[in-house]
Specification:
252 residues; 12 helices
Length: 252
């Protein structure tokens, strides 16, 4: 596989895993599981759950790590969420929800053991410096069930790519609102808690494209350090197929 081929594999894997984990995170069934676990506001369950691996941090610290959320609202959801089960308990609860979701909706996908095995090779070989959420989540125990484990591995790898991307975004000087607007527009920007009016970042479009390229280049370097050419292509293919399985099985 050429350098371009490894870039393509890393980008395809990242896209598939980002979308697959987003299906879990944003699905009403997962929100319902958070409510059943004691979080009156399921978004507080998400913030405390995803950020819980950071430990008993302040809302400001968690907001800094999450990077692209409106900080005041994010901090408030963190404080609301950790009041229910604490930080560690929130992370454990969210991890169990991810496992349950994978077991229920991903079991019919092909190559689940390979997604986990290849993903775990990549996770183990990747450095944690500057990637606090990735560092926290890769230390969490993985489920034995193949479908649950595969989704959890995808979750950890999503945090790896997100952390790399956030680091590149931070040093670029592009504000989170501008990044959201350049990525998916005003509805997406609002979902992350930002109030209007929105700076569209139009004058930074070229710089934003460079950030995407830098993220993919770094991920390709991590793939190259951990996987063979064939393994990288296999992980990309199986991840894309797993995403298709989730889309087919998860109710709308």
């Amino acid at each position: 596989m050429s350098n371009t081929g490894m870039l393509d594999a890393a980008a395809a894997t990242g896209t598939a895993m980002e979308q697959a984990v987003a299906i879990f995170m944003l699905h009403p069934e997962n929100f319902g599981a958070s409510v059943a676990a004691g979080y009156e506001n399921p978004l507080a369950g998400y913030v405390a759950g995803r950020g819980g691996v950071l430990g008993e941090a302040t809302g400001a610290t968690v907001s800094a790590v999450f990077a692209v959320f409106e900080p005041t609202g994010l901090s408030a959801m963190w404080e609301e969420g950790v009041a229910v089960r604490g930080a560690v308990g929130a992370a454990q609860q969210y991890w169990a929800q991810a496992a349950d979701f994978g077991s229920k909706y991903l079991a019919s996908a092909q190559g689940l053991d390979r997604i986990a095995a290849l993903g775990e090779k990549l996770i183990a070989a990747s450095p944690i410096a500057g990637l606090p959420l990735f560092a926290g989540w890769r230390a969490m125990p993985l489920a034995d069930d193949a479908a649950a484990r595969a989704l959890q591995v995808m979750f950890v790898l999503r945090e790896l790519r997100a952390g790399v991307h956030f680091n590149a975004l931070t040093i670029s000087g592009i504000a989170p609102v501008e990044a959201h607007m350049l990525n998916k527009g005003p509805e997406y920007t609002a979902m992350f808690g930002w109030p209007e009016p929105y700076a569209d970042g139009a004058d930074k479009k070229e710089r934003y494209d460079e950030i995407e390229q830098a993220t993919n280049r770094r991920m390709a370097e991590l793939f190259t350090a951990a996987l063979s050419e064939g393994e990288a292509e296999e992980l990309a293919r199986l991840s894309t197929e797993a995403l298709a399985t989730l889309k087919a099985n998860v109710p709308g």
